[in-house]
Please model this.
Amino acid sequence: MHPSDQPDTEKLTIDQRLISFFRDGAKIIGLPASVGEIFGLLFASPKPLTMADLVERLDISKGSASQGLKMLRTLGAVRDVEYDNDRKGYFEADIELKKLVGGFIREQVRPHMDSGTRKLGELEQDLDTVSDPELRAFYENRIKIIQRWSSKAKLVLPLLQKFLGE
Amino acid sequence: MHPSDQPDTEKLTIDQRLISFFRDGAKIIGLPASVGEIFGLLFASPKPLTMADLVERLDISKGSASQGLKMLRTLGAVRDVEYDNDRKGYFEADIELKKLVGGFIREQVRPHMDSGTRKLGELEQDLDTVSDPELRAFYENRIKIIQRWSSKAKLVLPLLQKFLGE
DNA sequence: TTTTTTGTTCAAAAAAAATTGAACTTTCAA
DNA sequence: TTGAAAGTTCAATTTTTTTTGAACAAAAAA
Model:
């Protein structure tokens, strides 16, 4: 019997736990685990970190670190900061929920919604090609249903942003 | 030059388009493409379909059809119906947004949120193990930030459901 | 019964997505 | 300039997820 009766999970440090927390969070919203880990480490760090820090502390490749940072910057979840008047780039996690959610909606949700809206339009065009009147009426109704969903979805996003902003 | 000057996408039938629409939608919310296709075909069908219909019309395996239907039933997106007083099982798409979103939240969102909440609790426990007071104060603040996010998230879901329920 | 039809399960195969790392580019200091 | 440090890119690899299909189980018809 081992001296410690604590389960495995008890041995993790706070920063390891934060990294794991954000790794899981990233997977949930459909982002690569490495992206979540990078954000987690930055979030858990009292001072800005370099790409080399990420590579070392997360044991990931330079490629992953570079690509992950790129994605996080695009999402507005990480920002470049001056530090140590050093030529290296330093990074910091953004902690404003409004900004994080806003970036996610802008980069991940909107493009999908726009493409969905476009496809829906194409669908409507093609109604003319349906000759059987009964089937056509059925499809018309189905398309109306999706359109109702779509207009709700379009209202929800700004509402959500408003709710999360402060 | 080919006689038709229509691009490829113009040749699709309405049901093919609906299948493609829901395949994309499924991928976006992190469900397998086949699950989206099954829902799409059911949504596009004026009458209930059997598993054999799905296998034939979507050209998927019996295994995929069975698993996909299972998931869709769990989500409350598809229901069993009596039809043709036939021994076979017949299925129909559910078209109530409230129910679709509710099922998704119940099956996919809540479990993740609960696990996140648990992890957050563990994190808080471990604050005691941080001896450096400055670092500890930093972590305390970080955890507070996540807790604020978390309580917002917990308010958002019922709000969302209320908004979507007619 | 026995046979046929219907549906499920799950190990293996295929497909998709993430990650690596080496080659390349950029930037700055010497 | 040249060299070294920092960062990016992307084809190849690894990992993860999805899909398949054959074996199995359940249920009803013959």
Remarks:
- Residues 133-164 of chain B form the longest helix (32 residues).
